[in-house]
Amino acid sequence: CLTYAAAYACRHNMNVLNNETIYDAIGVDSRHFGFIMTAGLLSSALFLIPAGVAVDFLGARNATVIGAAISSICNVILGLISQFAVGKIRPISIIILFAVIYSINNAAQAVTSVSACKLAVKWYAVEERGYFVGIFEAVSALGYLMAYQGTGLILAAPVHWSMCFFIPASVLFVFVILSLCFISDTPQKFLTDSGQIQHIMGENLPLIAGDQHHQQQTDDHQIALKEATKQPVSRWHVSFLKNVLTNPLFLILCLMNICVGWTRDGLQGGFSGVIKGHFNKSTGGEEFALSFSLS
Predict the structure, then answer these.
(1) How far from chain centre, in Å, is Cα 136?
(2) Which segment of 14-28, 77-91, 134-148, 265-279 scores lowest on mean pLDDT?
(3) CB neighbours of residue 217 within 10 Å
(4) How many CB atoms lie within 10 A of CB 77?
């Protein structure tokens, strides 16, 4: 959860930088910065399905570590561009560099997002996942606080604005190390790696609450998957996608998420321009960031 929250800070810091102070520093306007935001959002959307395949191939733990590490590196690169390239190369080149690196950053975070979902499936039985999601979302919301309030404070401090990338990248890298050390794909693997498996088995206790139910679900899933994959791989994938894309529940949830994303990301990414353009209020500083972090 904390790794994902730190990753949020390495993504939404760009929203806080979408203000007139940064426009003036680079020599661009809101339309140019909107290109960066659009590139990042498209990257997230387009890479989610490949990210799912990558997580299945790598495993949830490895995917979490790799995705978060790439995001941290991307923010370091963005910070280096801000520190050493702004003012020395053409503003449009800065925007293109920002768009490319930010897109890679968001694609990497798509991997981290999917891996978090897969970890929940492995660690929690069906009846426990609602609790997990509630706790996960509450902790992840700290990422918004870190991104908006933290970035606003950095902008208001007497330091270069590249610190808005370097500091979140450093925090995320710490959680990459912690994830590498403490996250396991399954409860069984965690207990085996930590040497506790014999103690648990000696007491004849389930590995986690609902573990027997979870194991039965896993066994049933493996049997169904084995039967389904007797078909040619290409035909099985086409059949699977057809079932998903024609499912009414899936389509309703997609439309709901489009509306949620429009109202949420539109506010976060574009409303600073509205405030500046229509109300002539400054959007560069901790007060404006605090209003977003509280929301």
Answers:
(1) 12
(2) 265-279
(3) 14
(4) 19
